[in-house]
Amino acid sequence: MIGATAGATAMYQAMSTLGFAAESPYEGPIDLRGAPRGASVVILGAGMAGLTAAYELRNAGYQVQVLEYNARPGGRNWTLRGGDRYTEMGGHTQQCEFDKDFYINPGPWRIPYHHHGMMHYTKLFNIPLEPFFQVNYNAYLHSSKAFGGRPRRYREVKADYQGHIAELLAKATRQNSLDASVTKEDQEMLLESLRQWGALDSNYSYVSSDASSDRRGFEKSPGGGLSARPIPSKPIALHDILDSGLWSGVANGDTFDMQTALFQPAGGMGRISEAFAKELGPLIRYNAKVTDIHQDDRGVAVTFSDTAGAGAPQTARGDWCLCTIPLPILAQIPMNVGPSLAAAISAVPYAAAVKAGLQFKRRFWEEDEKIYGGITYTDLPIMNIAYPNTGFQSGGKGVLLGAYIWGMRAMEFTAMAPPERVQRIVDYGSQIHPQYHKEFENGVAVAWHRAPFSLGCFGMWTSATRAKHYDNLCQIDGRIALAGEHASFLGGWQEGAVTSALDAIGRLHQRAVAQGERA
Amino acid sequence: MRYAALGTAALLLMVLSANADSPMFTSRATIGSLNGEQIYDHICQGCHMPGGQGAVGAGAFPKLAANKKFGSWAYVALTVLDGRNGMPPFGYPAGRGMDSGPAHLSDAQIADVVNYVRSHFGNRYKAEVTADKISALPHPAAELIGPQ
User: Fold this and answer.
1) What residues of B are in contact with residue A326 (Cβ under 8 Å)?
2) Could you tell me which chain A residue has the CA closest to the CA of B2?
3) Of A147, A376, B41, B93, whose CB is crowded by the most CB atoms within 10 A?
4) Tally of helices (H runs) and strands (E runs) in chain B
5) H-only helix segments in A231-348
6) Among candidates A512, A519, A518, A515, which has minimal Cα distance to A60?
7) Sheet with A374-378: strands ordered across
8) Which chain A residue is nearest to residue B143, measuring alpha carbons?
9) Which domains does chain A show, CATH number per domain?
10) pLDDT at B145
């Protein structure tokens, strides 16, 4: 029977068990043929994992019911738009006052091209994608402690860092310092490559020149006619680059997850879960707070209460249960599973993160500073400013991401009331964009530890906790399997949720098929 | 709504008084100077809320006020050191990583914040925890991996 389900499903399992799948293991639509007649699965959580599982299991013939705590689908796949209200734990309610069509994605906001599962479902549901600019050469790298606190263009820092390193390496080569490691023939080619890579002059020096300005930008850019003649710019000294720490931002777009091309759904990340929810319709039960999960040898009973009304607790039953509830919440829900799974559920701390959206009267970052999309990195507590990757030159107002904060600083912002978060984010941002105070209109700030539906941003694993708990977390316990980004090696990414859901339902399906129709 | 019963002026005062005009503390350079009360105000209350009131959503952040489990100082200390049910650990080794990494508190700071929460919010235990007592407890070994 298990042979009938081989192929992609078995491949997911092999790869994720070994854990060396550098790229998303997604290999095309899952094959769940042969579902036993009448078999049912209750799915807990309508985030990306739960929605993926519900869609595929329903299509395979399973009877599916999804319980979702929120009044909306998506979980962390979520877009805050003008008119939306959001109440965080502790009771603060924020009204998003953005103008129509403006939004922020408080959670995931980018999809790398190699997240094949996410790409598959966005295509399946005809969701238009826009380019997401991870790297914008004209955005800033900023240190409050260097260059008088003035930001530098990414382009300048990258060109100068690279140019100076090329010059040093060329010098070492020509002084025969590399003779032990590079042959004479290779040294010639190395020198030529360093000249090209670093925009060096004929003496292998990184100096103010047309060549270096062609990387870092000109003092006066070339044009046409009588005023055409360009004036080269002067590089930043190596010492100043190193001392500023700005070199640490040069490789921001080089990691596999951040490499071009990346995408964002037009209209917000939430368009994806909205499309799933439209497809699944009444199979999703909203406002359902799970209070107990109990399995026996015949099935799983999930007790939940309706958060919108009073009423007695209700019970959803299934032959199987796919549970995507984030671990800080699941750890508090009574559930009869074995000690190894219970220990794994309690072993994963959840990250702090804060994002804020700010609406301004005009798109000054485009009009004044010629920054079209992309991200500015700063050592200020706001850590990032991300400019909208859409609506360029549209005139009028704009919304940017005023902060994306993690780690201990995110904890400190979480501890503030939302209006103070926004105020401080505007204050800090004005050190980079002096236009902030004059142009600011309104803002929202989401602190993920206070998200009532996740109690954190994503699960943080160490190599030690992975070794001890990860496989136990992913193993099916009786009739219950877990899925979500926390059950993946793509922590914090939606692709982790999608691929963990497909992996889990593939294994549940094998068990269901092996067991056959219910006795 | 927690503030529903309060007037606008009172709300404004509460919002502004929490951290008004104080610098951001939690950088590698400055976090070591925080005392127990400051650690609570700048870190713990993000989840456990002002006054240790806790909060409820799909899951709950435990209420620290008048908490019966606080009779055991070691329970509180181990929770701060190692985390619990999604709560991040604060007992990681110092000195590695950047401001974006997890927060590290010294044994003396952990003793101080444990004493603080066990003697406030309706808890009336005496300040019996010392840095030496914290040092004797197991600490998490490795730092967490960074964000995605």
Assistant:
1) 86
2) A91
3) A376
4) 6, 2
5) 238-244, 270-280, 327-330, 339-345
6) A512
7) A152-153, A140-142, A374-378, A384-387, A398-406, A353-360, A440-447
8) A462
9) 2-74+272-348+459-515 (3.50.50.60), 80-107+351-450 (3.90.660.10), 154-245 (1.20.1440.240)
10) 52
Q: Quick check: B57 and A455 CB within 8 A?
A: yes
Residue A1 pLDDT: 27
DSSP string for B35-64? -HHHHIIIIIHHHH-GGG--EESSSEEPP-
Report the predicted TM-score, pTM, of the whole model to 2 decimal places. Answer: 0.91
Closest CA relative to residue A433, chosen from A357, A353, A363, A373: A363
Is the separation of the CB atoms in A454 and A329 below 8 Å? yes
Q: What is d(CA A283, CA A290) in angstroms, rounded to the nearest whole number? A: 16
- pLDDT tens-place string over residues B4-25: 333 333 333 333 334 434 567 6
CA A350 – CA B84 distance, rounded (Å): 10
Distance CA A331, CA A342 (A): 8
Both tokens of A159, joined, read 């060109």
CATH of domain B8-135: 1.10.760.10
Kindly provide the residue ranges of all beta strands, DSSP E only, lying in A103-178, ordered along the sequence: 103-104, 111-112, 129-132, 140-142, 152-153
ipTM score here? 0.90
Nearest-Cα distance to chain A for B63, in Å, is: 11
Q: What is the pLDDT of residue B25?
A: 66
What is chain B's alpha carbon radius of gyration, rounded to the nearest angstrom? 16
In this structure, the dihedral spanned by the alpha carbons of residues B114, B116, B121 and B124, taken in order and rounded to 10 degrees, is 80
Cα-Cα-Cα-Cα torsion A264, A454, B140, B92, nearest 10 degrees, comes to: 60
The 10s digit of each residue's pLDDT in A321-371 is 999 999 999 999 999 999 999 999 999 999 999 999 999 999 999 999 999
Domain limits, chain B: 8-135
Count the neighbouring beta carbons within 10 Å of the beta carbon of residue B31. Answer: 23
Whole-angstrom Cα distance, residue A388 to residue A369?
14
Mutation pick from B15, B17, B28, B47 vs chain A, by most beta carbons of A within 10 Å, is B47
